[in-house]
User: Which sequence fits this backbone?
């Protein structure tokens, strides 16, 4: 029961609505800046980590200011987490059945299609897109 109480208290404090989206945006932006080396390199050839961290920090705070964006990120990560668990189980089942490596491309295509459906539904639920129009278009595709 103690873990459940801690998770409920964290939810009431806004951990899932503020801290987790900030950490996600900061991490993704920092990783992209480090890999692309957009802000330059130092004399040893390493990316400028301090500049990258500051830019990622500012972008993370800008995202927190935009409430609709945080809603979309929160909804999207909830659905993507469920999809990731489903894909892991699907991968385990395929491995047990002996599916070959050359079917990987088609599985990645299906995963991309499902992720795009989830993103569109999250945008509609957050109010960025018209939910009625999305349902009118998406439901026949899924049936």
Assistant:
């Amino acid at each position: 029961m103690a873990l459940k109480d801690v998770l409920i208290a964290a939810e009431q404090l806004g951990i899932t609505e503020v801290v987790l989206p900030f950490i996600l945006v900061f991490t993704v932006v920092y990783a992209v800046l480090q890999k692309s080396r957009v802000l330059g390199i130092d004399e040893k050839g390493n990316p400028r980590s301090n500049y990258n961290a500051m830019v990622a920090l500012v972008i993370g705070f800008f995202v927190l200011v935009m409430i609709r964006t945080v809603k979309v990120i929160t909804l999207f990560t909830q659905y993507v987490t469920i999809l990731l668990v489903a894909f892991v189980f699907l991968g385990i089942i395929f491995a047990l059945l002996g599916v070959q490596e050359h079917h990987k491309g088609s599985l990645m295509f299906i995963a991309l299609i499902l992720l795009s459906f989830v993103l569109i539904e999250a945008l509609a639920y957050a109010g960025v897109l018209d939910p009625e129009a999305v349902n009118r278009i998406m439901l026949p595709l899924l049936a």
Q: What stands out?
A: The chain has six helices and no strands.
